Every structure is written in C-alpha cells, then in structure tokens.
Amino acid sequence: MAFLFKSSAERGRVWGEAFTRLLPDMPFRTWPDVGDAGDIHYMAAWTVTRDLLEGLPNLEVLFSVGAGVDQLDLSQVPAHVQVVRMMEPGLTDGMVQYATFATLALHRDMLDYRTAQADHRWAPRHLLPAAQRCVGVMGLGNLGMAVLNALRPFGFPLRGWSRSGSAVNGVEIFAGADALPAFLSGCDVLICLLPLTGETRGILCRKSFDLLPRGAGIINVGRGGHLVEHDLLSALDSGQLSGAVIDVLNTEPAAADHPFWSHPRILLTPHVASQTRDDSSVEVMIGNIRRHQAGQPMQGQVDRSRGY
Ligand code: NDP
Ligand code: OXD
Fold first, then answer.
1. Crossing angle of helices 142-151/89-107, nearest 10°?
2. Closest atom, ligand 1, to C-alpha of 306
3. CA angle 141, 143, 149 (to 5 degrees)
4. What one-character DSSP code corresponds to residue 79?
5. Rg over CA atoms, the chain
6. How far apart are the C-alpha atoms of 20 and 18, rounded to whole Å?
7. Burial bucket for residue 221 (CB in 10 Å: 0-12, 13-18, 19+)
8. Could you tell me which of 178, 225, 187, 224 has the C-alpha nearest to residue 209?
9. Which residues line ligand 1 (CB under 6 A)?
10. Residue 99 and residue 75: Cα distance in Å, rounded?
C-alpha cells in the first residue's frame, strides 16, 4: 500500500521526508514516478486529471493539499474515492493574520494613505471607533470561525453567515440564503471565506454590494470565482464600495493588463492569504490515514453532494 504526492517537486521532497519519518511502512512516491499504480491507496494533490485518477484503480482517499477542494474538480473524481480537505494549524494561522491585517487596513483607511503618500500629501483622516464598524464573515467553517475569534478583541461588532448558522460566541449569526440580505445590510467590512461551489459562485456581485451599507469594504480570501470582477469595479466607481482587499482571482496569475493591478481602491495580493505548513500538514494527513485504516471518520472529509 503506497502514498502518491502530486504538487511541486520541492514540496514533495519536504513532505516525503516527514511522511517517511512518521509512517515508515508506507512508501511515499512523488508524481510522475508512480511506480506500480495498483499500490496507490492514498494520494495528496492540488489538482488532478481524470486520466491520472483512472490509472489508480485502488485509490481510496484523495487529500487536497489546500483547504479548498474546488480546484480538484470533484466531477473528475470517482464516486468511491473519499475526498478530504486540509484542516491544519498553519493554514488557520496564516488566514487569521491576513484577515486581521486586511480588516484593519480598511478600518484604518490605508488605501487613502497609500494614495496620499504617493502624492506626497499629509492628509490625516478622522478615526472611527471600532465599535462603529461592523465586520461580517461569510462562511463559518474552520477559517471563518478562527477569523471571527481573532477580530473580537478589537471591539468591532461581529456578524457571521453560513448555511447552518453555527453559533459563535459574541457574533450575530445569520443562516441560509433567506438571511443573506439582512446579514449584508449591516456589514461595513465583508470578508468572504466560503468554499467555491455551485451555490456560492458569483456571490460577491452587484446585488450583494447594493445590500451593503454605502461605503463598505470587501475582503475576498475565498476563491476568485466568488467575485464578479466588473461588478466590483462598478461598485467602487459609484462609491457604493469604498475599498477592496483581493487575494484570489478568477484567473491566476492576473494578466498584465488586469484592472485591479493599478486600482487605487484595491489592494491585490497573489493568493497568499494562507499557505499549508509542511510539518503540520503531514501530521494531520497521517492522522487521517490512521483513522481511515481504523474505519473511523477522517477530519475534513468532504461531503461530495454539498461540494465542500
Ligand atoms: P469549511 O468547509 O470549514 O467552511 C465552509 C463554511 O462555508 C461553512 O461554514 C459552510 O456552512 C459555509 N457555506 C458553504 N456553502 C454555503 C452556502 N451556500 N451558503 C452559506 N454558507 C455556506 O472551509 P474553510 O473554513 O476551511 O475554508 C474556506 C475557504 O477558504 C476554502 O474553501 C478556500 O476556498 C478558502 N481558502 C483560501 C485561502 C487563501 O490563501 N486565499 C487559503 C485557505 C482557504 P455550514 O457551516 O453550514 O456547513
Ligand atoms: C487553500 C488555498 O485552499 O491555499 O488552501 O487557497
């Protein structure tokens, strides 16, 4: 029984060393050196193809090397293969840092100061107390919950929206599509931490922006497919939105002429909000392999019918 890794060669080397140290009985192979394909029962990848999966007749579990699984294209994965997303402390730490930074950047008018600095203008702005700026998080999963917990000490009123509406201490919760307008109507800063599914694609669109308080800011750290990019540009032009921090795009990397590069009201980063940490990822994955071999549920198991 062997494990196949398909991502960058450098990461394969690092993961291979840690994996072999922790689970020496299971050979670790790095794609494209698959060896005897019939041996492969477990695999970790960022993306896969139908051809590759069809060549692995005994594959039982496919681990995403990221928190999201949309990039795996679940329609290509045979129904009997269990899919597991990454839930590990390194990813959570990175996302908490980035979402906190982005919220504070919008709250403390950093887009205005960036422009003023470029113009050599000394232009102080009125400081709004945190208690007067409500922050809303879409998606109350592993990452959304951690972000809300990190934002609590700043004193922002907090709200959260998800399908089931799980409770979070000190956060006003909204559940399901019917509650989306009420949720949005109070968010001065909106953070998207949803998975990309058929239901959430394009959710950051003109209709949603119009429901936000005028002058709100948005932070997209989910997936590029959540955002309708031209709707963001229109909402910024009209003043309905005052700024955006964007970490993910529909097409990555951004083309040289993408309008977000030079937009004064957009802070753009290259899909770096968070990254899997090698040591903790391998430990979490091996814990899941052991659970699977013991017939127990794995952490982060994806419900294929929901797409996350
Ligand atoms: P989880 O699966 O733990 O949480 C997903 C949350 O979204 C759940 O609360 C779920 O609701 C909610 N949700 C899903 N569909 C809907 C819907 N239709 N309506 C309302 N709520 C919905 O995911 P994580 O927190 O681990 O990760 C979230 C996403 O963050 C990833 O899928 C990935 O796209 C992105 N990401 C981006 C990174 C970056 O660097 N930019 C890094 C890591 C992740 P419920 O609780 O009811 O099930
Ligand atoms: C992830 C990501 O999903 O890095 O983990 O985007």
1. 50
2. 15
3. 100
4. T
5. 21
6. 6
7. buried
8. 187
9. 66-68, 91, 95, 139-144, 162-164, 166, 193-197, 199-200, 221-223, 247-248, 271, 273-274, 308
10. 31
For ligand 1, atom 18, the nearest C-alpha belongs to: 199
pLDDT tier for residue 173 given thresholds of 50, 70 and 90? very high
Distance, in Å, from the CA atom of 110 to the CA atom of 179, rounded to the nearest integer, reads 31
Ligand 1 atom with the shortest distance to the CA of 273: 40
Relative to beta strand 2-6, strand 135-138 is unpaired
Secondary element (H or E) of residue 83: strand 82-84
Indicate the helix (H) or strand (E) that contains 255: none
| Helix, strand or coil, per DSSP, at residue 216 | strand
Model confidence over 186-230: pLDDT tens digits? 999 999 999 999 999 999 999 999 999 999 999 999 999 999 999
List beta partners, residue 19.
none
Distance, in Å, from the CA atom of 112 to the CA atom of 89, rounded to the nearest integer, reads: 34
Read off the DSSP letter of residue 68. -
Residue 115 Cα to ligand 2 midpoint, Å, equals 30
The confidence score (pLDDT) of residue 178 equals 98
Distance CA 54, CA 270 (A): 33
The residue behind tokens 């669109």 is 205
Question: Which protein residues are within 6 Å of ligand 2, measured from CB?
Answer: 66-68, 86, 91, 274
Stretch 94-118: mean pLDDT: 98
